[in-house]
Amino acid sequence: MIDCTNSLLPANPTRPGVLIECDPSVKAIILKYDEERHDYIVEDLDDDRHLVIKESQLQNLKLRLGKDLDDKLMQPDESESE
């Protein structure tokens, strides 16, 4: 889901970040999360797969994504019940 590099990027010296690579659909979810409170993203790299995430929020982001994606997978598809 999210592939993190082991190195911290000096995107902003006061807020170190971690470069992540993810599917475009997961990136869209992260961008939506960040619109709420600007908790996660240091920099949106202008492509479909890469973001620089606040190092301090990486674990929280992984947990939130995991929970939300699990919840979506557990919901029955409405088309199957018809």
TrEMBL record:
It comes from the Eukaryota. GO terms for cellular component: transcription factor TFIIH core complex. Keywords: DNA damage, DNA repair, Nucleus, Transcription, Transcription regulation. It holds the Pfam family Tfb5. InterPro entries: TFB5-like_sf, TFIIH_TTDA/Tfb5. GO terms for biological process: nucleotide-excision repair; transcription initiation at RNA polymerase II promoter. It is found in: Nucleus. Component of the general transcription and DNA repair factor IIH (TFIIH) core complex, which is involved in general and transcription-coupled nucleotide excision repair (NER) of damaged DNA and, when complexed to TFIIK, in RNA transcription by RNA polymerase II. In NER, TFIIH acts by opening DNA around the lesion to allow the excision of the damaged oligonucleotide and its replacement by a new DNA fragment. In transcription, TFIIH has an essential role in transcription initiation. In NER, TFIIH acts by opening DNA around the lesion to allow the excision of the damaged oligonucleotide and its replacement by a new DNA fragment. In transcription, TFIIH has an essential role in transcription initiation. When the pre-initiation complex (PIC) has been established, TFIIH is required for promoter opening and promoter escape. Belongs to the TFB5 family. Component of the 7-subunit TFIIH core complex. This is General transcription and DNA repair factor IIH subunit TFB5. It comes from Aspergillus glaucus CBS 516.65.
